[in-house]
Specification:
lpxc deacetylase, domain 1; five-stranded mixed β-sheet; 7 helices; binds zinc ion
């Protein structure tokens, strides 16, 4: 894996839908970007184009999803499109968007993964730099938390535990590869519980949610017709979300992440903690550009996001 070149996509490609929380129509276009660009959201505001790097330094506090913002615009529910890009090993891309929320599509990363496959994955001339974990970092507690440990290759072990007959305790082991991501992670959908959905609507959230983009569990079963895409679809979706949130690190990480009843808030706290603890990692691969970026990031104050329920289903 080391020595792999940076990657972008082969051509621009678009998708449209509605935002899960806003309910607003939204169109995203993924486009190729030059080496060392990273993943950058762009939005046309009046006659000019504003940009926002998909980076932890641009994290915005948000309930139930991950959001980034800068230069006067904000994008929420970034995690599924970022998961598709990061899961496929795309280092550099532009994401043009015409609303404040990435469209929910079918609630998974599969539609974005399909776009990337149609556009093609293009190796670029410059090698990729990796952040290799040397010392463990822990966030949270014994009941609910996330850790990253040294490992010779990137891995995720995720465990969830819900008192519901279709979920209960599920653990998923993800060994990082494009093939594994596409086959076993990308298609896993967002899930929620019927009592939560009604509470969300009361608070003006989840307006774009429907059975077309969310698995909704009732007390004894689920509202959606058909069956789950995987018996352990819920924990696979948590892995999907985590991969999308890891994209905010802006560099591929070599370590073993262990999530336990975690969620977006803890995922992004882990990303920040990695940057706050430079003694716990080293850069491998050509360091110049990314080393400068990371040094800039480490100097930033820690993000003080508002406390949120870490186990929220979105
Ligand atoms: Zn999600």
């Amino acid at each position: 894996m080391l020595g792999q070149r940076q990657q972008t996509i082969g051509q621009s490609i678009s998708a449209s839908g509605v935002g899960l929380h806003s309910g607003s129509p939204s169109k995203v276009s993924l486009s190729p970007a030059p080496v060392d660009n990273g993943i950058v959201f762009r939005r046309k505001v009046n006659s000019h184009v504003e940009t926002c790097q998909a980076s932890i330094r641009n994290l915005r506090p948000m309930e139930l999803c991950t959001a980034v913002g800068s230069n006067g615009f904000q994008i929420q529910t970034t995690e599924h499109v970022l998961s598709a890009l990061w899961g496929f090993g795309i280092d550099n891309a532009f994401i043009d968007i015409d609303s404040e929320e990435v469209p929910a599509m079918d609630g998974s990363a599969a539609p974005f993964a399909k776009l990337i496959q149609l556009a093609g994955i293009l190796p670029q001339e410059r090698p990729r730099t990796y952040l290799k974990i040397l010392e463990p970092i822990h966030i949270g507690d014994d009941n609910r938390g996330i850790s990253i440990l040294p490992s010779p290759f990137p891995r995720i072990t995720y465990t969830i535990d819900y008192d519901h007959q279709l979920i209960q305790q599920q653990t998923y082991e993800h060994e990082w590869s494009t093939v594994e991501f596409e086959a076993n992670i990308a298609h896993a959908r967002t899930f929620a519980f019927s009592h939560e959905v009604e509470a969300l609507w009361d608070r003006g959230l989840g307006k774009g949610g429907s059975l077309d983009n969310t698995i909704v569990f009732t007390e004894t079963g689920m509202m959606n017709e058909g069956t789950l895409r995987f018996p352990d679809e819920c924990v696979r979706h948590k892995v999907l979300d985590l991969i999308g949130d890891l994209a905010l690190l802006s560099i591929h990480v070599i370590g073993h992440i262990i999530g336990k009843r975690s969620g977006h808030h803890l995922h992004t706290q882990l990303v920040q903690a990695i940057l706050d603890n430079p003694e716990a990692w080293t850069l491998v691969g050509p360091p110049e550009k990314h080393a400068t970026d990371l040094a800039d990031l480490v100097k930033q104050d820690s993000i003080h996001a508002m406390p949120l329920p870490a186990n929220s289903a979105f």
